[in-house]
Design goal:
Length: about 450
């Protein structure tokens, strides 16, 4: 569920320097651009029984990162590198690195300890081609390796590489039009080793419907490409983008499954300036869909096994104060709709669910101390044809499915905050403490009602 953005500490801590469009904005307002470099070490924990089945009851994470932005007379550069280690206890369900990303999954019913190492390297540049034009390139690569050494021992190795050329048309008054193309290759290779007591992995072909199979290796490859368009002004911005994806999985030659998909997103934001404050509005829409297919065996077509369709709409309003201790006050509203459909004739199934979220935000500054606070409330609703009719589908991990749906839709409240302290006497040195608490008001299948996260970060900017 998107509203529980801190459910996975790994994604919380991973640094992201700039998307391709942001790289295209490096030459905007160049007179005020400042070169800087930042290094940091961080570590955190996440614990609690209110969790999806693939998350651990306790997880810790530690790592280090460095990033830099440099501006020359005609060219701007960014670069970054990060390394981190995660250890999670009582982690089960998906064996893949990013559960739920692909429409096919491999599951391990037994919980155990998982270890994951992640490294990422990225860089970008943008250079002037004249008074009005600039062109650049952003490249990034991430490598992950995860292992589990209990029950069904397995390891998963993944590579995610992305290339984004961009062109910027610079207009007067810091206005710009950024066009970028992106190509992405995402690969994961799952290897399954020794199995205790003859346990077998479960091949999930959507909605936890599938079968136990003697799988030893399961490679996955996805290739995606698309474009983004961004109109930037100091008081207004609008963006639009689309991505097309093609995926292959299973068997050493990747011939067992195919999964085409696409992503569409659009956004609009506007700032209204007043004497002592700014009013900022932003709306964002995203639509994702994909489908899992299996060749017929005759080389003439494919059977559709499973389809997914997701829509998200987010609204944000903020008041940003130009003077005083209060820096901003705002509210975020979000709504999501998922629709899943199993298309196998012998195992028909369908499910859809909705959720809504409201979050209050506030930021303060007291000399060398910055404080960011938030509070949220959310709830979801869902309907599963198999469950409603009380006719569970054969070959379905119903308990795992119900636990995950309970986690996604249970009513909840939460609070969180980040305090950043700039160390006196050492310019650029800071300490940052981040924490959150999430409480489900009622659960049916989930193992508990609470989830807490905490992270400490020590950084130096120069």
């Amino acid at each position: 569920m998107k509203i529980t953005s801190k459910a996975c500490l790994l994604s919380l801590l991973f640094p992201i320097l700039a998307q391709g469009q942001e790289a295209g904005l490096l030459r905007m307002n160049r007179e005020k651009a400042v070169s800087s470099t930042e290094t940091a070490i961080f570590g955190g924990v996440e614990e609690g029984l209110f969790r999806p089945t693939y998350a651990g009851s306790f997880q810790w994470n530690a790592g280090a990162e460095a990033k830099t932005v440099r501006h020359g007379r005609k060219t701007s550069w960014t670069g970054g590198i990060s390394l981190q280690q995660m250890m999670g206890y009582n982690m089960g369900s998906s064996m893949l690195l990013d559960p739920g990303y692909f429409p096919v999954d491999i599951l391990d019913a037994a919980e155990g300890t998982k270890s994951r190492e992640t490294g990422k390297l990225e860089g970008s540049f943008l250079t002037d081609l004249g008074y009005e034009w600039a062109a650049g390139l952003k490249a990034s690569a991430q490598v992950d390796y995860m292992t589990k050494q209990r029950d069904i021992k397995h390891s998963s190795f993944g590579v995610d590489a992305k290339l984004e050329p961009t062109v910027t048309y610079v207009m007067d008054d810091d206005m710009g039009l950024v066009s970028s193309y992106h190509a992405r290759v995402r690969m994961e290779w799952l290897r399954i080793g020794q199995r205790e007591d003859g346990a077998q992995p479960f091949l999930d072909m959507g909605m936890r419907i599938g079968a136990y199979e003697n799988i030893e290796q399961f490679p996955i490859l996805e290739i995606a490409h698309g474009f983004n368009e961004l109109l930037y002004m100091p008081e207004l911005n609008a963006e639009f983008g689309i991505t097309w994806k093609r995926g292959w999985a299973g068997r050493l030659d990747l011939s067992r499954f195919r999964f085409p998909g696409s992503t569409l997103h659009a956004g609009f934001g506007q700032t209204f300036q007043a004497d002592n404050l700014d009013h900022v509005y932003h709306i964002a829409y995203r639509r994702d869909r994909d489908q899992l297919r299996e060749p017929t065996g005759e080389g003439r077509g494919f059977n559709s096994l499973y389809g997914r369709h997701q829509r998200n709409l987010d609204l944000t309003y903020e008041v940003r104060f130009l003077h005083g201790a209060v820096k901003r006050v705002g509210v975020e509203l979000g709504g999501n709709h998922w629709k899943d459909q199993g298309m196998m004739p012998q195992q028909p199934s369908a499910a859809q669910w909705y959720d809504g979220m409201a979050k209050l935000l506030a930021s303060f500054s007291f000399g060398p101390v910055d404080l960011d606070l938030n509070a949220l409330a959310a709830q979801g609703w869902w309907k599963d044809r198999g469950r409603i009719e009380n006719t569970p589908v054969p070959g379905r991990l119903m308990s795992d499915w119900l636990r995950n749906m309970d986690y996604r839709t249970a009513p909840r409240i939460g609070v969180g905050g980040t305090i950043t302290v700039r160390i006196p006497g050492v310019k650029g040195l800071y300490a940052q403490l981040d924490g959150s608490w999430l409480h489900a008001l009622s659960v049916v299948y989930a193992g508990g009602q609470n989830r807490e996260t905490g992270m400490l970060r020590i950084g130096y900017k120069f």
